[in-house]
Design goal:
This protein is α+β, with helices and mostly antiparallel strands. 30% of the residues lie in helices and 20% in strands. The strands form 5 sheets. The protein has a 7-stranded mixed beta sheet with strand order 10-11-12-3-13-20-14, with helices on one face. The chain has a 5-stranded antiparallel beta sheet with strand order 1-6-7-9-8, with helices on one face. α10 runs antiparallel to α12. The longest helix has 18 residues.
Protein backbone atom coordinates (compact mmCIF):
# COMPACT_ATOMS: atom_id res chain seq x y z
CA UNK A 1 0.00 0.00 0.00
CA UNK A 2 1.16 3.53 -0.70
CA UNK A 3 2.91 5.23 2.24
CA UNK A 4 1.61 8.55 0.97
CA UNK A 5 -1.87 7.29 1.76
CA UNK A 6 -1.38 6.04 5.31
CA UNK A 7 -3.66 7.26 8.10
CA UNK A 8 -1.66 8.96 10.81
CA UNK A 9 -3.32 8.25 14.12
CA UNK A 10 -4.74 11.20 16.00
CA UNK A 11 -6.43 9.37 18.83
CA UNK A 12 -7.93 5.93 19.22
CA UNK A 13 -11.27 7.44 18.26
CA UNK A 14 -9.85 9.07 15.17
CA UNK A 15 -8.14 5.85 14.10
CA UNK A 16 -11.39 3.93 14.43
CA UNK A 17 -13.27 6.57 12.49
CA UNK A 18 -10.66 6.57 9.73
CA UNK A 19 -10.76 2.80 9.47
CA UNK A 20 -14.55 2.84 9.20
CA UNK A 21 -14.45 5.57 6.57
CA UNK A 22 -11.90 3.60 4.54
CA UNK A 23 -14.06 0.50 4.75
CA UNK A 24 -11.37 -1.51 6.53
CA UNK A 25 -13.47 -2.61 9.47
CA UNK A 26 -11.35 -3.63 12.43
CA UNK A 27 -8.21 -4.48 10.44
CA UNK A 28 -5.05 -2.40 10.72
CA UNK A 29 -4.90 0.06 7.84
CA UNK A 30 -1.37 0.84 6.63
CA UNK A 31 -2.44 3.04 3.72
CA UNK A 32 -2.25 6.81 4.09
CA UNK A 33 -4.88 9.21 2.80
CA UNK A 34 -3.46 12.09 0.80
CA UNK A 35 -4.85 14.46 3.38
CA UNK A 36 -3.97 14.00 7.04
CA UNK A 37 -5.99 16.15 9.41
CA UNK A 38 -5.99 17.12 13.06
CA UNK A 39 -9.55 18.41 13.22
CA UNK A 40 -10.47 16.13 16.12
CA UNK A 41 -7.44 16.89 18.26
CA UNK A 42 -8.82 19.84 20.21
CA UNK A 43 -12.33 18.52 20.69
CA UNK A 44 -11.16 15.02 21.58
CA UNK A 45 -8.71 16.36 24.14
CA UNK A 46 -11.34 18.59 25.66
CA UNK A 47 -13.99 15.87 25.72
CA UNK A 48 -11.61 13.37 27.29
CA UNK A 49 -10.90 15.77 30.12
CA UNK A 50 -14.56 16.68 30.46
CA UNK A 51 -16.18 13.24 30.32
CA UNK A 52 -13.54 11.04 31.93
CA UNK A 53 -11.36 13.14 34.19
CA UNK A 54 -13.15 16.39 34.94
CA UNK A 55 -13.92 15.24 38.45
CA UNK A 56 -10.25 14.37 39.01
CA UNK A 57 -8.57 17.50 37.64
CA UNK A 58 -7.36 20.00 40.18
CA UNK A 59 -6.95 23.04 37.94
CA UNK A 60 -3.93 25.13 38.90
CA UNK A 61 -0.84 24.36 40.89
CA UNK A 62 2.80 24.13 39.93
CA UNK A 63 4.76 21.31 38.32
CA UNK A 64 8.54 21.01 38.65
CA UNK A 65 10.32 18.58 36.31
CA UNK A 66 13.93 17.52 36.91
CA UNK A 67 16.09 16.43 33.99
CA UNK A 68 19.86 15.70 33.86
CA UNK A 69 20.42 17.71 30.68
CA UNK A 70 21.25 21.28 29.78
CA UNK A 71 18.93 23.32 27.61
CA UNK A 72 21.05 25.00 24.93
CA UNK A 73 18.78 27.27 22.90
CA UNK A 74 15.19 28.21 22.14
CA UNK A 75 16.14 29.11 18.57
CA UNK A 76 15.73 25.58 17.27
CA UNK A 77 16.93 26.23 13.69
CA UNK A 78 20.39 26.40 15.30
CA UNK A 79 19.91 23.63 17.85
CA UNK A 80 22.40 20.74 17.64
CA UNK A 81 20.52 18.53 20.11
CA UNK A 82 16.98 17.15 19.96
CA UNK A 83 16.90 17.44 23.77
CA UNK A 84 16.32 21.21 23.34
CA UNK A 85 12.84 20.35 22.13
CA UNK A 86 11.74 19.23 25.59
CA UNK A 87 12.27 22.62 27.19
CA UNK A 88 10.92 24.46 24.16
CA UNK A 89 7.60 22.59 23.85
CA UNK A 90 5.67 24.37 26.61
CA UNK A 91 6.20 27.63 24.69
CA UNK A 92 6.89 26.71 21.07
CA UNK A 93 4.65 24.20 19.31
CA UNK A 94 5.66 21.91 16.47
CA UNK A 95 3.64 21.62 13.28
CA UNK A 96 3.15 17.91 13.95
CA UNK A 97 3.43 15.29 16.64
CA UNK A 98 4.19 11.57 16.54
CA UNK A 99 2.11 8.68 17.78
CA UNK A 100 3.45 5.62 19.60
CA UNK A 101 4.42 3.91 16.33
CA UNK A 102 6.34 6.91 15.03
CA UNK A 103 3.67 8.11 12.59
CA UNK A 104 3.14 11.87 12.43
CA UNK A 105 -0.11 13.81 12.57
CA UNK A 106 -0.71 17.59 12.42
CA UNK A 107 -0.58 19.40 15.77
CA UNK A 108 -0.14 23.15 15.40
CA UNK A 109 -1.07 22.62 11.76
CA UNK A 110 -4.57 21.47 10.84
CA UNK A 111 -3.80 19.36 7.76
CA UNK A 112 -0.84 17.80 5.96
CA UNK A 113 -1.25 16.88 2.31
CA UNK A 114 1.33 14.89 0.31
CA UNK A 115 1.19 15.00 -3.50
CA UNK A 116 3.72 12.40 -4.72
CA UNK A 117 2.94 13.06 -8.38
CA UNK A 118 3.79 16.76 -8.24
CA UNK A 119 6.33 16.40 -5.37
CA UNK A 120 4.51 18.95 -3.20
CA UNK A 121 3.84 18.84 0.52
CA UNK A 122 1.09 21.21 1.66
CA UNK A 123 0.51 22.52 5.18
CA UNK A 124 -2.89 23.91 6.08
CA UNK A 125 -2.91 25.95 9.28
CA UNK A 126 -5.55 26.38 11.92
CA UNK A 127 -7.60 29.53 11.74
CA UNK A 128 -7.13 32.30 14.29
CA UNK A 129 -4.05 31.00 16.16
CA UNK A 130 -2.02 33.78 17.78
CA UNK A 131 1.52 33.97 19.11
CA UNK A 132 1.99 35.10 22.70
CA UNK A 133 2.82 38.61 21.44
CA UNK A 134 -0.54 38.85 19.66
CA UNK A 135 0.82 38.42 16.13
CA UNK A 136 -0.82 35.94 13.77
CA UNK A 137 0.44 32.40 13.31
CA UNK A 138 -0.31 32.56 9.61
CA UNK A 139 1.24 31.11 6.48
CA UNK A 140 3.75 33.92 6.15
CA UNK A 141 5.06 33.33 9.68
CA UNK A 142 5.26 29.55 9.22
CA UNK A 143 6.98 29.82 5.82
CA UNK A 144 9.49 32.22 7.41
CA UNK A 145 10.19 29.64 10.14
CA UNK A 146 10.76 26.92 7.55
CA UNK A 147 13.16 29.19 5.70
CA UNK A 148 15.09 29.84 8.92
CA UNK A 149 15.73 26.10 9.25
CA UNK A 150 16.99 26.05 5.66
CA UNK A 151 19.15 29.17 6.12
CA UNK A 152 20.77 27.62 9.19
CA UNK A 153 22.00 24.54 7.37
CA UNK A 154 19.08 22.21 8.09
CA UNK A 155 17.70 21.84 4.57
CA UNK A 156 18.63 18.15 4.56
CA UNK A 157 16.66 17.67 7.78
CA UNK A 158 13.61 18.94 5.89
CA UNK A 159 14.20 16.68 2.89
CA UNK A 160 16.08 19.36 0.90
CA UNK A 161 13.10 21.38 -0.36
CA UNK A 162 13.44 23.29 -3.61
CA UNK A 163 10.99 26.09 -2.80
CA UNK A 164 8.63 27.21 -0.03
CA UNK A 165 5.56 29.11 -1.22
CA UNK A 166 2.81 30.94 0.66
CA UNK A 167 -0.42 30.06 -1.15
CA UNK A 168 -2.81 32.05 1.05
CA UNK A 169 -3.13 33.03 4.72
CA UNK A 170 -3.44 29.43 5.88
CA UNK A 171 -1.61 27.34 3.29
CA UNK A 172 2.05 26.74 2.53
CA UNK A 173 3.39 24.56 -0.27
CA UNK A 174 6.83 22.96 -0.11
CA UNK A 175 8.19 21.87 -3.48
CA UNK A 176 10.64 18.97 -3.68
CA UNK A 177 12.60 17.50 -6.56
CA UNK A 178 12.18 13.87 -5.49
CA UNK A 179 9.55 11.84 -3.65
CA UNK A 180 10.08 11.00 0.02
CA UNK A 181 7.67 9.11 2.23
CA UNK A 182 8.61 11.00 5.41
CA UNK A 183 7.70 14.62 4.62
CA UNK A 184 5.13 14.61 7.43
CA UNK A 185 7.89 13.54 9.83
CA UNK A 186 10.41 16.11 8.64
CA UNK A 187 8.01 19.05 8.49
CA UNK A 188 6.13 17.95 11.61
CA UNK A 189 9.31 18.43 13.63
CA UNK A 190 9.53 22.14 12.80
CA UNK A 191 8.86 24.36 15.84
CA UNK A 192 7.20 27.70 15.13
CA UNK A 193 8.19 31.00 16.77
CA UNK A 194 6.91 34.53 16.28
CA UNK A 195 8.43 36.20 13.22
CA UNK A 196 7.49 39.57 14.71
CA UNK A 197 9.37 38.84 17.96
CA UNK A 198 12.46 37.79 15.99
CA UNK A 199 12.44 40.93 13.87
CA UNK A 200 11.86 43.13 16.90
CA UNK A 201 14.47 41.58 19.21
CA UNK A 202 17.02 39.81 17.00
CA UNK A 203 18.42 36.32 16.71
CA UNK A 204 20.60 36.37 19.84
CA UNK A 205 17.60 37.30 21.95
CA UNK A 206 15.67 34.34 20.52
CA UNK A 207 18.30 31.91 21.79
CA UNK A 208 17.41 32.65 25.41
CA UNK A 209 13.84 33.89 24.94
CA UNK A 210 10.87 32.42 23.13
CA UNK A 211 7.55 33.67 21.80
CA UNK A 212 5.40 30.86 20.48
CA UNK A 213 1.81 29.62 20.43
CA UNK A 214 2.17 27.09 23.23
CA UNK A 215 0.20 26.48 26.43
CA UNK A 216 2.79 28.32 28.53
CA UNK A 217 4.61 31.64 28.30
CA UNK A 218 8.34 31.68 28.99
CA UNK A 219 9.07 33.47 32.26
CA UNK A 220 12.83 32.99 32.70
CA UNK A 221 15.73 30.89 31.50
CA UNK A 222 18.83 30.51 33.67
CA UNK A 223 21.57 28.68 31.77
CA UNK A 224 22.41 25.22 33.23
CA UNK A 225 19.93 25.85 36.06
CA UNK A 226 16.23 26.14 35.31
CA UNK A 227 13.46 27.31 33.00
CA UNK A 228 10.23 28.75 34.40
CA UNK A 229 6.90 29.21 32.63
CA UNK A 230 3.48 30.67 33.39
CA UNK A 231 0.11 29.61 32.02
CA UNK A 232 -1.04 30.99 28.66
CA UNK A 233 -4.58 32.10 29.47
CA UNK A 234 -5.39 32.39 25.76
CA UNK A 235 -4.22 28.97 24.62
CA UNK A 236 -6.03 27.65 21.57
CA UNK A 237 -7.37 24.48 23.28
CA UNK A 238 -10.18 25.56 25.58
CA UNK A 239 -9.63 24.72 29.23
CA UNK A 240 -5.94 23.91 28.83
CA UNK A 241 -3.35 24.04 30.23
CA UNK A 242 -4.49 22.83 33.62
CA UNK A 243 -1.31 23.75 35.49
CA UNK A 244 -0.66 27.41 36.36
CA UNK A 245 3.11 27.27 36.68
CA UNK A 246 5.76 25.03 35.18
CA UNK A 247 9.45 24.69 35.96
CA UNK A 248 12.20 22.53 34.46
CA UNK A 249 15.22 22.08 36.74
CA UNK A 250 18.49 20.93 35.19
CA UNK A 251 19.96 18.57 37.80
CA UNK A 252 22.98 16.75 36.43
CA UNK A 253 23.60 14.53 39.46
CA UNK A 254 21.06 11.72 39.53
CA UNK A 255 21.47 11.16 43.27
CA UNK A 256 20.49 14.78 43.84
CA UNK A 257 17.56 14.32 41.48
CA UNK A 258 16.46 11.20 43.35
CA UNK A 259 16.55 13.06 46.68
CA UNK A 260 14.51 15.91 45.20
CA UNK A 261 11.87 13.44 44.01
CA UNK A 262 11.76 11.50 47.28
CA UNK A 263 11.32 14.78 49.15
CA UNK A 264 8.64 15.82 46.62
CA UNK A 265 10.60 18.95 45.71
CA UNK A 266 10.03 17.94 42.07
CA UNK A 267 6.98 16.30 40.51
CA UNK A 268 8.85 14.36 37.82
CA UNK A 269 12.40 12.99 37.67
CA UNK A 270 13.55 12.01 34.17
CA UNK A 271 16.23 10.09 32.32
CA UNK A 272 17.14 7.72 35.13
CA UNK A 273 19.24 4.71 34.15
CA UNK A 274 20.83 3.35 37.34
CA UNK A 275 19.14 0.27 38.77
CA UNK A 276 20.02 1.11 42.40
CA UNK A 277 18.45 4.56 42.11
CA UNK A 278 15.46 3.22 40.23
CA UNK A 279 14.82 0.49 42.81
CA UNK A 280 15.07 3.01 45.66
CA UNK A 281 12.47 5.22 43.98
CA UNK A 282 10.14 2.30 43.29
CA UNK A 283 10.36 1.07 46.87
CA UNK A 284 9.38 4.54 48.05
CA UNK A 285 6.09 4.20 46.17
CA UNK A 286 6.65 6.52 43.20
CA UNK A 287 5.06 5.77 39.85
CA UNK A 288 7.06 4.87 36.78
CA UNK A 289 5.68 6.72 33.76
CA UNK A 290 6.11 6.24 30.04
CA UNK A 291 6.63 3.20 27.83
CA UNK A 292 9.51 0.99 26.78
CA UNK A 293 9.75 1.16 22.99
CA UNK A 294 12.10 2.09 20.17
CA UNK A 295 11.27 5.78 20.43
CA UNK A 296 11.96 5.97 24.17
CA UNK A 297 15.58 4.83 24.32
CA UNK A 298 19.08 6.18 23.84
CA UNK A 299 21.90 4.25 22.21
CA UNK A 300 25.38 4.83 23.62
CA UNK A 301 27.80 4.39 20.76
CA UNK A 302 31.20 4.94 19.14
CA UNK A 303 31.67 6.73 15.82
CA UNK A 304 34.77 5.60 13.93
CA UNK A 305 36.94 7.51 11.49
CA UNK A 306 36.14 4.87 8.90
CA UNK A 307 37.02 7.17 6.00
CA UNK A 308 40.61 7.85 7.06
CA UNK A 309 43.63 7.01 4.94
CA UNK A 310 45.93 8.45 7.61
CA UNK A 311 44.92 6.54 10.73
CA UNK A 312 44.55 2.84 11.59
CA UNK A 313 40.74 3.10 11.90
CA UNK A 314 40.52 3.61 8.14
CA UNK A 315 41.38 -0.08 7.72
CA UNK A 316 38.25 -2.24 7.91
CA UNK A 317 40.31 -5.12 9.32
CA UNK A 318 41.38 -2.91 12.26
CA UNK A 319 37.78 -1.94 12.92
CA UNK A 320 36.66 -5.55 12.78
CA UNK A 321 39.50 -6.60 15.09
CA UNK A 322 38.39 -4.14 17.75
CA UNK A 323 34.81 -5.38 17.45
CA UNK A 324 36.07 -8.81 18.56
CA UNK A 325 37.40 -7.20 21.77
CA UNK A 326 33.92 -6.13 22.96
CA UNK A 327 32.15 -8.26 25.57
CA UNK A 328 28.73 -7.06 24.41
CA UNK A 329 26.43 -7.95 27.27
CA UNK A 330 28.87 -6.91 29.99
CA UNK A 331 29.57 -3.57 28.31
CA UNK A 332 25.85 -2.87 27.82
CA UNK A 333 25.19 -3.50 31.52
CA UNK A 334 28.21 -1.46 32.66
CA UNK A 335 27.03 1.57 30.69
CA UNK A 336 23.52 1.53 32.08
CA UNK A 337 23.61 0.72 35.76
CA UNK A 338 22.77 -2.88 34.90
CA UNK A 339 19.64 -2.06 32.86
CA UNK A 340 20.98 -1.75 29.33
CA UNK A 341 20.73 -4.15 26.43
CA UNK A 342 23.31 -5.09 23.83
CA UNK A 343 22.32 -4.68 20.18
CA UNK A 344 24.15 -5.83 17.03
CA UNK A 345 22.69 -2.91 15.05
CA UNK A 346 22.23 0.80 15.67
CA UNK A 347 18.60 0.38 16.67
CA UNK A 348 16.44 -1.47 19.16
CA UNK A 349 14.96 -4.90 18.52
CA UNK A 350 11.50 -3.41 17.83
CA UNK A 351 12.76 -0.79 15.37
CA UNK A 352 12.00 -0.95 11.66
CA UNK A 353 15.77 -1.01 11.07
CA UNK A 354 16.27 -4.24 13.01
CA UNK A 355 16.84 -7.67 11.50
CA UNK A 356 18.33 -10.67 13.32
CA UNK A 357 22.12 -10.42 13.34
CA UNK A 358 25.00 -12.24 14.98
CA UNK A 359 27.21 -10.19 17.27
CA UNK A 360 30.91 -10.07 16.49
CA UNK A 361 32.34 -12.93 18.55
CA UNK A 362 33.96 -11.77 21.78
CA UNK A 363 37.49 -13.10 21.27
CA UNK A 364 40.34 -10.82 22.41
CA UNK A 365 42.99 -13.22 21.09
CA UNK A 366 41.42 -13.14 17.63
CA UNK A 367 41.31 -9.34 17.91
CA UNK A 368 45.05 -9.20 18.63
CA UNK A 369 45.79 -11.59 15.76
CA UNK A 370 43.78 -9.49 13.32
CA UNK A 371 45.51 -6.30 14.51
CA UNK A 372 48.87 -7.95 13.91
CA UNK A 373 47.82 -9.05 10.42
CA UNK A 374 46.74 -5.48 9.70
CA UNK A 375 50.23 -4.24 10.64
CA UNK A 376 49.75 -3.29 14.29
CA UNK A 377 51.22 -6.14 16.37
CA UNK A 378 51.92 -3.71 19.22
CA UNK A 379 48.73 -1.73 18.88
CA UNK A 380 48.82 2.04 18.39
CA UNK A 381 48.00 5.32 20.12
CA UNK A 382 44.81 7.25 19.51
CA UNK A 383 42.19 9.48 21.14
CA UNK A 384 38.54 9.25 22.12
CA UNK A 385 36.61 12.53 21.96
CA UNK A 386 33.48 12.99 24.01
CA UNK A 387 31.44 15.28 26.27
CA UNK A 388 31.19 15.07 30.05
CA UNK A 389 27.76 13.46 29.71
CA UNK A 390 29.24 10.60 27.68
CA UNK A 391 32.53 10.20 29.51
CA UNK A 392 31.37 6.80 30.78
CA UNK A 393 31.12 5.50 27.22
CA UNK A 394 34.55 6.89 26.41
CA UNK A 395 36.24 5.36 29.45
CA UNK A 396 34.63 1.94 28.92
CA UNK A 397 35.78 1.95 25.29
CA UNK A 398 39.23 3.10 26.41
CA UNK A 399 39.42 0.03 28.65
CA UNK A 400 38.31 -2.24 25.78
CA UNK A 401 41.06 -0.89 23.54
CA UNK A 402 43.65 -1.36 26.27
CA UNK A 403 42.95 -5.12 26.43
CA UNK A 404 44.32 -5.50 22.89
CA UNK A 405 47.25 -3.09 23.19
CA UNK A 406 45.68 0.12 21.90
CA UNK A 407 46.38 3.19 24.04
CA UNK A 408 43.61 5.80 23.84
CA UNK A 409 43.52 9.20 25.51
CA UNK A 410 40.07 10.50 26.45
CA UNK A 411 39.50 14.14 25.45
CA UNK A 412 36.41 15.72 27.09
CA UNK A 413 34.98 18.65 25.09
CA UNK A 414 31.88 20.77 25.40
CA UNK A 415 29.00 19.94 23.10
CA UNK A 416 29.58 22.77 20.62
CA UNK A 417 33.28 21.91 20.27
CA UNK A 418 32.48 18.25 19.62
CA UNK A 419 29.78 19.19 17.09
CA UNK A 420 32.32 21.38 15.29
CA UNK A 421 34.84 18.54 15.31
CA UNK A 422 32.30 16.26 13.64
CA UNK A 423 32.21 18.68 10.72
CA UNK A 424 35.99 18.56 10.22
CA UNK A 425 37.73 16.64 7.45
CA UNK A 426 39.66 14.28 9.70
CA UNK A 427 39.75 13.07 13.30
CA UNK A 428 42.64 11.12 14.79
CA UNK A 429 40.50 8.82 16.88
CA UNK A 430 36.94 7.99 17.89
CA UNK A 431 33.86 9.87 19.09
CA UNK A 432 31.97 8.50 22.09
CA UNK A 433 28.38 9.68 21.99
CA UNK A 434 24.74 8.81 22.56
CA UNK A 435 21.75 9.27 20.30
CA UNK A 436 17.99 8.93 20.47
CA UNK A 437 16.58 5.67 19.23
CA UNK A 438 13.79 5.68 16.64
CA UNK A 439 11.14 3.28 15.43
CA UNK A 440 11.78 4.63 11.91
CA UNK A 441 15.47 5.48 11.62
CA UNK A 442 15.37 6.64 8.00
CA UNK A 443 15.51 10.36 8.73
CA UNK A 444 18.10 10.05 11.51
CA UNK A 445 20.45 7.90 9.44
CA UNK A 446 20.20 10.40 6.58
CA UNK A 447 20.49 13.47 8.82
CA UNK A 448 23.50 12.27 10.81
CA UNK A 449 25.37 9.62 8.85
CA UNK A 450 24.75 10.08 5.12
CA UNK A 451 26.35 12.33 2.51
CA UNK A 452 23.21 14.51 2.71
CA UNK A 453 23.59 14.95 6.47
CA UNK A 454 24.71 17.76 8.72
CA UNK A 455 27.88 16.20 10.20
CA UNK A 456 30.47 13.41 10.03
CA UNK A 457 31.28 14.17 6.38
CA UNK A 458 35.03 13.97 6.88
CA UNK A 459 35.13 10.76 8.89
CA UNK A 460 32.39 8.37 7.73
CA UNK A 461 33.02 6.04 4.81
CA UNK A 462 29.43 5.96 3.46
CA UNK A 463 29.72 3.11 0.96
CA UNK A 464 27.06 2.46 -1.68
CA UNK A 465 25.92 -0.57 0.30
CA UNK A 466 24.80 1.87 3.01
CA UNK A 467 23.51 4.87 1.09
CA UNK A 468 21.71 3.13 -1.78
CA UNK A 469 19.27 1.19 0.43
CA UNK A 470 18.98 4.13 2.84
CA UNK A 471 17.81 6.51 0.13
CA UNK A 472 15.64 3.74 -1.29
CA UNK A 473 13.97 3.47 2.14
CA UNK A 474 13.15 7.16 1.94
CA UNK A 475 11.66 6.77 -1.54
CA UNK A 476 9.80 3.53 -0.82
CA UNK A 477 6.14 3.30 -1.81
CA UNK A 478 5.24 0.63 0.76
CA UNK A 479 6.08 0.13 4.42
CA UNK A 480 7.44 -3.34 3.67
CA UNK A 481 9.81 -1.95 1.03
CA UNK A 482 10.90 0.78 3.42
CA UNK A 483 11.70 -1.66 6.21
CA UNK A 484 13.59 -4.02 3.91
CA UNK A 485 15.88 -1.26 2.65
CA UNK A 486 16.34 0.32 6.07
CA UNK A 487 17.48 -3.04 7.45
CA UNK A 488 20.06 -3.36 4.68
CA UNK A 489 21.38 0.12 5.50
CA UNK A 490 21.55 -0.67 9.22
CA UNK A 491 23.57 -3.83 8.56
CA UNK A 492 26.04 -1.95 6.35
CA UNK A 493 26.38 0.86 8.91
CA UNK A 494 27.35 -1.40 11.83
CA UNK A 495 28.08 -4.97 10.88
CA UNK A 496 29.59 -4.85 7.40
CA UNK A 497 31.59 -1.61 7.44
CA UNK A 498 31.82 -0.76 11.18
CA UNK A 499 31.18 2.96 10.78
CA UNK A 500 29.34 3.19 14.10
CA UNK A 501 29.25 0.77 17.03
CA UNK A 502 26.34 0.64 19.48
CA UNK A 503 27.49 -0.31 22.98
CA UNK A 504 24.30 -0.08 25.04
CA UNK A 505 20.59 0.49 24.49
CA UNK A 506 19.32 2.44 27.49
CA UNK A 507 15.60 2.57 28.15
CA UNK A 508 15.40 5.54 30.48
CA UNK A 509 12.88 5.63 33.26
CA UNK A 510 10.93 8.59 34.53
CA UNK A 511 9.02 8.77 37.81
CA UNK A 512 6.33 11.10 39.04
CA UNK A 513 4.87 11.78 42.43
CA UNK A 514 1.42 10.23 43.00
CA UNK A 515 -1.45 12.32 41.63
CA UNK A 516 0.22 13.66 38.48
CA UNK A 517 -1.42 12.58 35.23
CA UNK A 518 -1.15 12.89 31.43
CA UNK A 519 2.30 14.45 31.13
CA UNK A 520 2.98 12.34 28.03
CA UNK A 521 6.60 12.02 29.16
CA UNK A 522 8.23 8.99 27.50
CA UNK A 523 4.90 7.89 26.02
CA UNK A 524 6.08 8.49 22.46
CA UNK A 525 9.72 9.60 22.51
CA UNK A 526 12.39 11.07 24.77
CA UNK A 527 11.60 14.62 23.63
CA UNK A 528 7.86 14.77 22.98
CA UNK A 529 5.44 15.35 25.84
CA UNK A 530 2.08 17.04 26.46
CA UNK A 531 2.57 20.13 28.67
CA UNK A 532 -0.94 21.35 27.79
CA UNK A 533 -2.62 18.20 29.12
CA UNK A 534 -0.71 17.44 32.34
CA UNK A 535 -2.70 17.90 35.55
CA UNK A 536 -2.81 17.18 39.25
CA UNK A 537 -5.63 15.05 40.59
CA UNK A 538 -7.83 16.32 43.38
Amino acid sequence: MNIAKKVLALTALAVMAAAMTAGCGGSKNTSIPETTTAKNIETTAAKTGESETAKEIAVGGKLVIAIPLSHNTFFLPQSTSTSDRFGAQPVIESLGRADEEGNYYPWLAEEFYSDPDNLIFTIKLREGVKFHDGSDCDAEAVAWNIQKYIDNGKASELGSPVKVTVVDDRRIEIQYDQWSNNWDNLIGDIFIISKEAYEKNGEEWCKTNAVGTGPFILDSFIDDNKITYTKNENYRIEGQPYVDQLEIDMIMDTNTMMSALLNKEVGVAMKLENDAIINTIKQAGFESIGRKNANCADIKHIIWNSKSDKHPMGDLKVRQAIMHAIDWDQVAKALSGGLGEATPLFCTSDSWAYSPQEFYEYNPELAKQMLSEAGYPNGFETSIYTTSQNNDTATVFQAILATIGITAKVEVLDGSALAAMQKEDDIDGFIANRGASKMDFTNNYIRLYSSEGIKNHGIMLRPDEFETPLFAARAAKTIEEKKENLQKAAKALVSDYVMITPLSVVYYEAFSVPGLKDSGIYDVSLEQWTPEAVYWTK
